[in-house]
Amino acid sequence: ARAVDSAKMPALTGPFFALVIGLALPPAIARPGYVGRIPNGNKVPGHRKPMAVGHVNAEGHGDRNAFGQDFQEAKFRWTRELCMKDSDGDGRSNGEELGDPDCTWRLPKTGKPPLPKRTTGIAWPFEKGITHPGI
């Protein structure tokens, strides 16, 4: 076996190393998490899409807000009880704020969820005192 002169080999550091590692790893798959389990979960206004509607931190980690706690109690399902509840105490039901005022939206077992009754003017079911258009 012949010895390799390390001085003649390119260094695998910095940007080149990052590129090699990046190409070797499989691409990450982004998942909407729980926002797909509530009507218009991807349309809640905020600085990121989708918003982490069940967390105090809009980035989606840490403590749950009142809506997140209620959603957990509903076993992370959109139920009639969760829909009718007013998690943020602003006088509007979660269903009204998320475009399902009649509480008829259901997540199908397979396939794409149907559109809720309303898809505009979506509000935050977790932030008391904010006025939202369309509601």
Coarse structural class: mainly alpha
Mean pLDDT: 76
Question: Which residues form runs of ≥5 with pLDDT under 50?
Answer: 19-31, 130-135
Tally of contiguous helical segments: 4
SSE pattern, N- to C-terminal: HHHH
Helix content percent band: 10-25%
Q: Gyration radius, to the nearest Å?
A: 22 Å
Q: What is the strand content?
A: under 5%
Q: Please summarize the sheet with the most strands.
A: none
First-residue to last-residue Cα separation: 77 Å
Shape: globular
Strand segment count: 0
Please give a structural write-up.
With 135 residues, this protein is mostly helical. Helices cover 21% and strands 0% of the residues. The protein has 4 helices and no strands. It has helices spanning 14-24, 66-73, 80-84, 94-97. It is globular. Residues 19-31 and 130-135 have low confidence and may be disordered.
List the helices and strands and how they pair.
Elements (H helix, E strand, L loop, with lengths): L13 H11 L41 H8 L6 H5 L9 H4 L38
In short:
The protein has 135 residues and is mainly α. It is 21% helix and 0% strand.
Keywords:
single chain, 135 residues, mainly alpha, 4 helices, globular
